[in-house]
């Protein structure tokens, strides 16, 4: 079989277990594909030696019948926001150029303990701030469906690596949509778990009350297998949940019958691309045909999500990014006086979007404005959360579009930050509420992938994955692959 790159993580995991392929073969294939597709700029750093060594150890374990998990020997990629021992970690920022973390974050630690092969670190919008991948200090990632277009962001490289068959699964982070939106724009699945489900330890912080790590894959089962390994309590993350981790693959075959799926009126309003709307409506129809009951619902505070998100995420970012002062990490400007050193380092090291967020965040937290902006945004965040609490008393899941538009051209939305921010209207509220959300391929509009977003109640990942698996069985969209 020569078409391994077209296959899902689940298929590859089964083939490894059945002895039909070795991890070394898969890893070498991925490494040569990464090189052949370097124009996509999906990877910022490839750890070929580390990956080959991990593959070899995995093959030895498999030969002894001692595989560590279904991920043993599977080549994966990590967003370059996740720190990896001795392997460059940049957050796609010049300020971290040359930084070699002294230890592994929780994610590589767990993946390695499960036997996974980590191929390298993927591109992103600098410090995960953006929706296009264009705000990387190391050049944009290209969408494999149309290389003149963005793949979405901020987890641009992880999404593209999976979509283009450069690896079999990948981790991204989602603070306001950064897993779901690029999954939607590149035709794959992406899951943002419930806040606190996956450890944030060793993942560079953007907005700590919103950030969550999650997987990309080509099927619901691909997501389940990865989530199984990364979910669970971690004493190194004080917000980490100690709720037991269920078997995420257990109920994938259960189908949709009996599930009530809410369709919020606020998510189907002007501004949506008509092609996207058509695909999403057809997707809802599939859910209904498969036995779900569609229930019209209202999430009345949706309209405030964008404003609340940009007050809170900038406030948290301004505080989290204060540590990049030129003394402890990465680049240092040539200045002797301390305040000048800070200022010059940050001016040289941070890109425009990151600077904009720090300035906005510092403003909303400043004396005299704190109550008017930050305090108020926290109150409205509670109302947004209550909208979902109320909705989930009535329905099991909620279905919405993931993004109002398909992938846009690389140079679009550059000069107008507001239009970039608006690309996330359907994903932000989910992070504010802390609930899990999943995007899955639902079809194409003018040749470009469109995602359908499913939202679940807190810790509702099993139901989300079950619904996505049923949708996948009833449609062909997740099997589409971009042109080579
Ligand atoms: N696009 C959103 C932002 O720019 C979300 C980013 C993210 O989820 N990391 O903040």
Largest sheet: 11 strands, mixed
The unique ligands bound to this protein are: glutamine
Mean pLDDT: 96
Global morphology: globular
What is the CATH homologous superfamily assignment? Answer: Amidase signature (AS) domain
User: Which sequence of strands runs across the widest sheet?
Assistant: 1-3-2-4-6-5-10-11-9-7-8
- Count the domains: 1
Architecture in CATH? Answer: Alpha-Beta Complex
CATH class: Alpha Beta
Structure summary:
The protein is of the alpha/beta class and 484 residues long. It is built from 15 helices and eleven strands.
Question: What report would you give on this structure?
Answer:
- With 484 residues, the chain is α/β, with parallel strands linked by helices.
- The protein has one domain: Alpha-Beta Complex (Amidase signature (AS) enzymes).
- Helix content is 37%, strand content 13%.
- Helix 2 runs antiparallel to helix 3.
- Glutamine is lined by residues 128-131, 154, 173-178, 206, 313, 424.
Topology of this protein?
Layout lengths: L8 H9 L5 H14 L6 E4 L1 H16 L11 E5 L26 H8 L3 E6 L33 H8 L5 E5 L6 H7 L2 E4 L20 E5 L2 H11 L29 E5 L9 H16 L3 E5 L7 H16 L17 H12 L2 H13 L6 H24 L2 E5 L15 H6 L5 H6 L3 E9 L2 E8 L5 H14 L10
Helix pairs in contact: 2-3, 7-15, 9-11, 9-12
The structure holds glutamine.
Glutamine binds next to loops.
